Amino acid sequence: MGNLTRRRFMQNGLLAGGALGMGDRVCTAATPTIRRTKLSPVAYEQVRLLEGPMREQFDRNHAFFLALSEDSLLKPFRQKAGLPAPGEDMGGWYTFYADFNPKGPFHGYIPGHSFGQYLSGLARAYAQTGSKPTQQKVHRLVEGFSKTITPKFYVDYHLPAYTFDKTCCGLIDAHQFGQDPVAMRALGPATDAVIPFLPERALNRKEMYARPHKDEAYCWDESYTLPENLFLAYQRSGEVRYRQMAKKYIEDESWFTPLSEDQNVLPGEHAYSHLNSLCSAMQSYWNLDEERYLRAARNGFRMIQEQSFATGGWGPNETFVKPDSSALAESLTKTHSSFETPCGAYGHFKITRYLLLETGDSRYGDSMERVLYNTILGAKPLQPDGTSFYYSDYNDKGQKGYFDDKWPCCSGTFPQVTADYGISAYMRSGPDVYVILYVPSELRWRESGAACTLTQTTEYPTSPESTIELKLDQPQTFAVKLRIPAWAGPKTRVAVNGRAVDAAVKPGTFARVQRTWKNGDRIELEIDMPQRLETIPYQQAGGERVVLMQGPVALFAIGDGSATITRAQLLAAEHASKNSADWKVATATAPLTMRPFAAIGDEHYRLYQTVRA
Ligand SMILES: [Zn+2]
Asked: In angstroms, what is the span from residue 420 Cα to ligand 1's centroid?
């Protein structure tokens, strides 16, 4: 679906990238200023995913939403505005249904909630493929939506802040990445429409429950996630009202202030929306230049990592647990709702990108790739009726499945995170190029008037090797910075044109390969992936629970998980066959097959093994 000739190159990645985009402004009321970051993002149009599992997932979601009925997508908005509303009802969370019951089923929970996310996913897909039908669909959806805007939409609406946050994201992305002529203008009345229904400040769930509410679902709104997209709206429009509104919804008192002082206030909080709120902390830091917001985001993210599963996922039953409790270990037998995967992965990619841009710390990239290979890449595809993958299951009797309710939140974040794979793989700093993810892909940019292309060929992490080839109009001097994962072993090596180079290859940093590059130069990277065992955080009593890790990949034991096994047996795992993703572990009885999450279908599996010494 690519249309290479129509692709636009961006001279400066900072202007158009996913994080700090501030390109072509309309009705500039002010000139937004923003803190400069250590690294700068690349633009969607600069990266093309090449054949591989990430490209396949991106293409599938792109095609899925390109084919979705526009009348159905617009139906709840038209119904609420009292306009003719042809087309079929989408059902599930998306549909307008007056007799919603908060005890479930969730039919009619938040009508139209994910419209903005589908729009955003399409706009980002257009930016990287140049697909005209995709852009035209974005424009038609925005035009259709703009005719329905009315405050009536939010009357008796359970989560006005939640849905407005997604709508805002969709409109500013349609403007920025889809060159939509009316989206930014439509955001004005869309904002006016929701204001009467928003609280006076950011409220957490405890505060929501303390207020009068018609039913429980009114207490689940997420006003504390609003600042991120409002700051982006300000950056992209120059309209000061969005900056003022963003400031109003920063949740300082019970969240960012304690986090900035390194107090762990995570336990009991809703997991995904609070990780996502750390992105609001980063935008607050960049826009307001107040250092405590950076501290809040870094501390909060570290605290989440400290309570993450070996897959990189977090928040069993969508809730953060108490540090040093046995809650995570207990979740392995108590729940199948272990990690809210598309939403969690989308937020995780975003916050690790933000923290990487700000700090240049390669370990945020390690965290991103862990979530990529062990969670989202193994998500089952969306079904045409809105049936969605939602939870990854880390129960000892684990199996993949679909969510009961159609068109949930995770149907909205799935196309967004797959559209972000490309911009997550690279960053820049001056003339230098940072390789964050090892994925088959191509990065294009211009330097001193010359066209430059960097092409990655890799089957990582199934194979430890990646090749990076440079195509340059004329020789160029810059550094290619390669992320060396913190777990990488001593045999990790970098070569240029077949000769080992003296780059400082230190796990947990970027290896710097600097030279005057010529057309056709090749970098070969081999990442040593020694096997290791990771224990479950906060383990207190009982048998030790471990995951066998192969580089960034967590290996799941296939079958009923009843095999008795030792640490030594796990660490002696061998590839089942060359180029297979499977590993074999010899046990006292039958050999055990270990498999990465992305290669698992409907078979039963177990993530954490109980080991004897
Ligand atoms: Zn979700």
From this structure: 17
